[in-house]
Amino acid sequence: MAAPSIRLITTSKAPAATGYSQAVLVNNQTLYVSGQTGMISGKTDVVPGGARAEAKQAMTNIGEILTYAGSSFKHVINCNIMVTNMNDFQDVNETFKNFFTADTYPARSFFQVVKLPKNALVMIDAVAVVAGQENVKKTVLQKRISMNNFEAGTAQLAAAISPRPARREKLAAGPTRRGAISPPHNSPRPTRRAFIFGYLAARFFR
């Protein structure tokens, strides 16, 4: 099994990451975004205005990372929200919802924690997919082509290993005299391609 491809995502439009990556893209398809707080890129403190303002900036940072990696909020599939005070739930929840539409809400968990870096009130992380419809369609087409090749290969294999017409005729006619020459035939010989497809059929489709 091939090792997964891993790409580290870094954009100057989101706060710099120290000792970790802003996001990691796996197999050019699944994007894991590190927890974002209300910090602005290039600054050292969170934005003023409380939990609502911090949640908005955290989601803005996530949006910048998503865009840089080729994804968007409509492709987010999961989020975790951490707050230091559960009384901020309503403000944070309303702010969070503004970045999605009703048909794109991701799965989500909401936690209260003791403390966050830089005395932040909110931290949000995300998981998103990157593959667009064109890539999905391409993958489906490739699978269909593979299945067509498999079906064609098994048909060739069946023809290759079935009794040859001349052999069937000979068996039906009975034994010939010693020294007699059997009529020539043009029955197909097993091809290398047929055996390859047969092997693949036995290995992957049993």
From TrEMBL:
Name the segments for region: Disordered: 164-189
Q: Known InterPro entries for this protein?
A: RidA (IPR006056), RutC-like_sf (IPR035959), YjgF/YER057c/UK114 (IPR006175)
Q: Would you say which domain of life the source belongs to?
A: Eukaryota
Secretion signal span = none
Please give the NCBIfam families that the UniProt record associates with this protein.
Rid family detoxifying hydrolase
The UniProt entry's sequence similarity note says:
Belongs to the RutC family.
List the protein's name: Uncharacterized protein
